[in-house]
Amino acid sequence: xxxxxxxxxxxxxxxxxxxxxxxxxxxxxxxxxxxxxxxxxxxxxxxxxxxxxxxxxxxxxxxxxxxxxxxxxxxxxxxxxxxxxxxxxxxxxxxxxxxxxxxxxxxxxxxxxxxxxxxxxxxxxxxxxxxxxxxxxxxxxxxxxxxxxxxxxxxxxxxxxxxxxxxxxxxxxxxxxxxxxxxxxxxxxxxxxxxxxxxxxxxxxxxxxxxxxxxxxxxxxxxxxxxxxxxxxxxxxxxxxxxxxxxxxxxxxxxxxxxxxxxxxxxxxxxxxxxxxxxxxxxxxxxxxxxxxxxxxxxxxxxxxxxxxxxxxxxxxxxxxxxxxxxxxxxxxxxxxxxxxxxxxxxxxxxxxxxxxxxxxxxxxxxxxxxxxxxxxxxxxxxxxxxxxxxxxxxxxxxxxxxxxxxxxxxxxxxxxxxxx
Length: 421
What we know:
Mean pLDDT: 84
Protein name: Trichome birefringence-like N-terminal domain-containing protein
Order of helices and strands: HHEEHEEHEHEEEEEEEEHEEEHEHEEH
Subcellular location: Membrane
Shape: globular
Largest sheet: 7 strands, mixed
Family: Belongs to the PC-esterase family. TBL subfamily.
GO molecular function: O-acetyltransferase activity
Strand order of the largest sheet: 6-7-8-5-11-14-17
Low-confidence stretches: 1-44, 46-50, 62-88
Radius of gyration: 33 Å
Structural class: alpha/beta
Membrane topology: Single-pass membrane protein
Number of strands: 19
Helix content: 25-40%
């Protein structure tokens, strides 16, 4: 670009010299008191030529001023930790597509003690790492590049709480591994009770002692209270779900700065009716209640508790929608993990569970941000655990490999959260 400008200067002013000489030939120079020379033009032609010269110079100056900004060097855009001035609503993070990005993944799961062995697909024998090289690109905006150190500084003194099922635990693990890349002394990050990560434990809490930051996980797969079968219940009733009462560990979620919920994967016939679990409302057994109706009733119980308990001035609340699985076959028992993201969603970009979550949240008094990850996960048939878990005999097309898709949920979560500040 500099060469272009130099060439322009050389052409314009270099070619003017003969023209100027021609103009001056029409006049006679007169020296007045010193070194100042004035030109007196002796013919009409000289005046015309001078006028033409001035018009030419003015035109060139105008063109130069107008066009020059277009020749400024192009500055490559870089991703930085966000410092937003605009509102979150201006960016729909969940309308977009996956693009390849060789700067990913953000961490090595084998170097993170909080990533479950069952989710570390590369360590469990998966040979292609291409599934880790994809970044979600929203249609009308950018998700700022993750900067672990800067996020840790902004989160200093905070408590982040995840509540939900194993997909919530996956996101919890992902966030910890992402943030650990910004910690020099890895020993300063530890589980507060010295517990190892297991599938059934109800509480796990990791502390980043150098930043006085805690990231907790509470296992509550239904969000409401499970209970025994009531007296005189039919033999098929083995247990119940009290959909009008929130989980009995609910008070442990209150003292938090960021609160992220999820639920949905256990709201299926195989996890409920086939296991003899039915719904209970006010002590009354609801044998004929559909699962979607029960889920909506349970979410209203959750919403009512949130509206009356959470201090919205302190706590930012999020609810992540249903995560797309990619089971196939007649009974949806086949798990075929692809090598690349799917080009089509196959209808997995919609979910009745997600629709109910969005509907209930819209009617709430306390502001809740919906992390609508259902559409973005629909394309990622390549990113599931498959047979690369700690139990390869049981294929898994529900959970995600780490690093992978849950990292993107956390990038969106952090971008969304920091934009408010």
